[in-house]
Specification:
two-stranded antiparallel ribbon, 14 helices
Amino acid sequence: MSCQRLKNWIEERYDVEAIKKLATHKLVPVHQYEIWYYTGGIAMFLFILQFITGMVLSFYYIPHLEYAHKSIIEIVTKLNMGWFFRSIHHWGAQLATLVLFIHVFSTLLLKSYRKPRELTWVTGFVLLKISIFFGLSGYLLLWDERAFAAVRVATGGAGNLPFIGGFIKAFLRGGIDVTGDTLTRFYAFHVAILPIVTLLLIGVHVLLVQVHGMSVPLSLEKKPHKSIPFFPNLFYKDLIVWLVVLGIMVTLAVFLPPEIGKKADPLAPAPENIKPEWYFLFLFQTLKLFPGEILGLNGETIAIILITCGILFFFLIPFFDRKSSRGEPSPVFTWIGIMYTLYFVVMTVIGFVT
């Protein structure tokens, strides 16, 4: 069947013109901050690649205490292009998380969360949290000594939350300590639960963006500005950006393939100088600021409570920032956004270099 006949076949059965009309009538504002619009598309593109490479790897991975580490090594050493797919999956996860952080912080600083886009912020924030849990759950699947120690620390930290910490810790671990049950749970989260929730949230997030349109920064909202059609203008630009991102990811995958450590031994001490993944470093450094005991209370518990309060406030900012919702300047929340961004960047850099 030729392309024209295929096109005619589809057009006879479906209202393609309506889709074309919708795409060409969707307008995107043009201004000096429009570069941040691309971060959402890049994140979605990376998620798609993660789903594809993850499905390929799942054909050969064995989520069992005795075989998990061995199956990863066999994927890398024995399968044709196995090392490449695993490396792409690794770097795709790193870049997706990085782009999501940039997307969320740019949304925060440009106040794109303001009325009527509060739910868009909420779905984006949850997607960021899910991507972090994606990283943590995928990290344990290696079942090497560093991943084992990192998950033991992360789940142990969650256990310091008052009242519900013990339940969360036991639920994540599937028992008292990190064991084969934890591996099974994290595998279920990584390949089934998190992908389903992610797809649903991406669908809602994209739908909300279509309903409300692209946000214009508060400082430019009342000024005259141009708009361009999403299709083909911005669509082609998106494709170019995705190709560049793909090139970066392939380059990293080829020249910096991720290491695989020794198989985890639950009875062995944690490796020296162990650090969590980069997106946990700001939390790691924050915990180091607190002494072991404060006024007779556990210092780590107090740190976990303060961090949780800080994250909760971050999540609720759209509902607190009433001035931005009314279209008025909101310098207090501008400084709050700058402080959150600087704190994350500075503590991450300190954690990385020390």
